[in-house]
């Protein structure tokens, strides 16, 4: 097809001159030979990546919400809910062909999940959480892929070929990787639920609640930094804290989320969570390029919903964090008692704290690593 197509008069080279024009003409000929339509090239701001997009399902075909729902065997309203949960925009006209066929087909699992007994609201919630997490993973993978294929002085065609080859090699690995990571998380979640079943057998009856320890850590002086640093530098600091927390937190401790300059963790066992918080504070001490941390820990009955946690220990741990001095970990009394005697930790009484939103004063304890010769 490239031989029959006059790229010079097509308008696809408008605005380009010299070497850039020659490179784009070479790329367009290669794309046409691979079956990419002229309209796809014309409407795409990054034609170098069109071939790699085709590897992962972008065939240039668009369908309407109604067509996709019919193909998936689900009601239109349900299809639209799932699409929004996956992060796709709401479209007023269900007959407008605006969805990539491959994107629309991502909802075909809906009927199977409903048939095995997963509730509709729960399925939408699961889809939304997966969409949020995988969107961040996709952005990280996009950056890694571009860093791997873009080389100084490489032509557009060379970059396109390298991108197509890389994505073609990576795409078959994604499904198994995501499946294994998800199953790993599910195994640990079910193990935690088994602990909750034991608690119920022992007479604890608060619906859905379990005894957990919650930890928060935040960057000291982050608000003041916002007045001196550009937003992108603040974002990098917050991302560095999140990355460091994920690296340090290992089972049974679980990283839950970031809230601006703050990270939240949870564990069914209090001692590993305190160890994680101490390590987190320790890792950032003495780093002139990173603000100091402070952390708070609390234990109590909490409920897990949509991957987040709710209950009195969540609020208490957040308040303890706000009351902690820079570079320290402040532990509420119930968490201190739950940890008990552990020769890894040393304690000092930090007083009874009057905390916002907490009815009674809370006895608090400052935790630190025990001296090596005390073990």
From TrEMBL:
Q: Which SUPFAM superfamilies match?
A: Nucleotide cyclase (SSF55073)
The GO terms describing molecular function are: adenylate cyclase activity
The residue ranges of the Guanylate cyclase domain are 213-321
> Which Gene3D superfamilies does UniProt cross-reference here?
Nucleotide cyclase
**InterPro entries xrefs:** A/G_cyclase (IPR001054), Ad_Cy_reg (IPR032026), Adenylyl/Guanylyl_Cyclase_3/4 (IPR050697), Nucleotide_cyclase (IPR029787)
User: Which Pfam families does the annotation name?
Assistant: Ad_Cy_reg, Guanylate_cyc
PANTHER family this protein is in? ADENYLATE CYCLASE, TERMINAL-DIFFERENTIATION SPECIFIC-RELATED, PH-SENSITIVE ADENYLATE CYCLASE RV1264
Assigned protein family? Belongs to the adenylyl cyclase class-3 family.
Protein name per UniProt: Family 3 adenylate cyclase
The beginning of the lineage is: Bacteria, Bacillati, Actinomycetota, Actinomycetes, Mycobacteriales
């Amino acid at each position: 097809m490239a031989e029959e197509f006059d790229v010079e008069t097509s308008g696809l080279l408008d605005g380009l001159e010299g070497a850039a024009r020659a490179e784009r003409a070479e790329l367009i000929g290669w794309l046409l030979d691979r079956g990419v339509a002229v309209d796809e090239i014309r409407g795409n701001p990054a034609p170098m990546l069109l071939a790699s997009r085709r590897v992962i399902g972008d065939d240039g075909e668009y369908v309407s919400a109604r067509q996709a729902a019919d193909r998936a065997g689900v009601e239109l309203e349900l299809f639209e809910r799932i699409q929004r949960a996956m992060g796709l925009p709401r479209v007023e006209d269900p007959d407008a062909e605006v969805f990539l066929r491959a994107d629309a087909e991502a909802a075909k699992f809906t009927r199977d999940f409903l048939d095995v007994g997963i509730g509709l609201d729960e399925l939408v919630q699961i889809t939304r959480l997966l969409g949020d997490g995988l969107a961040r993973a996709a952005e990280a993978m996009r950056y890694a892929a571009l860093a791997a294929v873009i080389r100084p002085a490489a032509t557009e065609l060379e970059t396109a070929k390298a991108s197509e080859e890389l994505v073609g090699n990576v795409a078959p690995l994604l499904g198994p990787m995501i499946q294994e990571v998800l199953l790993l998380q599910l195994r640990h979640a079910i193990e935690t639920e088994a602990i909750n079943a034991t608690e119920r057998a022992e007479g604890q009856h608060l619906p859905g609640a379990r005894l957990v320890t919650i930890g928060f850590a935040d960057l000291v002086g982050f608000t003041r930094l916002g007045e001196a640093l550009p937003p992108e530098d603040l974002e990098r600091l917050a991302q560095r804290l999140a990355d460091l927390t994920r690296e340090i937190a290992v089972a049974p401790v679980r990283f839950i989320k970031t809230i601006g300059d703050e990270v939240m963790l949870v564990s069914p066992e209090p001692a590993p969570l305190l160890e994680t918080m101490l390590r987190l504070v320790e890792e950032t001490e003495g780093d002139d390029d990173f603000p100091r941390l402070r952390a708070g820990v609390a234990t109590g009955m909490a409920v897990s919903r949509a991957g987040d946690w709710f209950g009195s220990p969540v609020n208490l741990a957040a308040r303890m964090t706000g009351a902690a001095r820079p570079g320290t970990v402040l532990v509420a009394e119930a968490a201190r008692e739950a940890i008990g005697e552990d020769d890894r930790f040393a304690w000092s009484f930090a007083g009874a704290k009057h905390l916002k939103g907490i009815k009674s004063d809370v006895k608090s304890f400052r935790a630190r690593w025990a001296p090596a010769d005390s073990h």
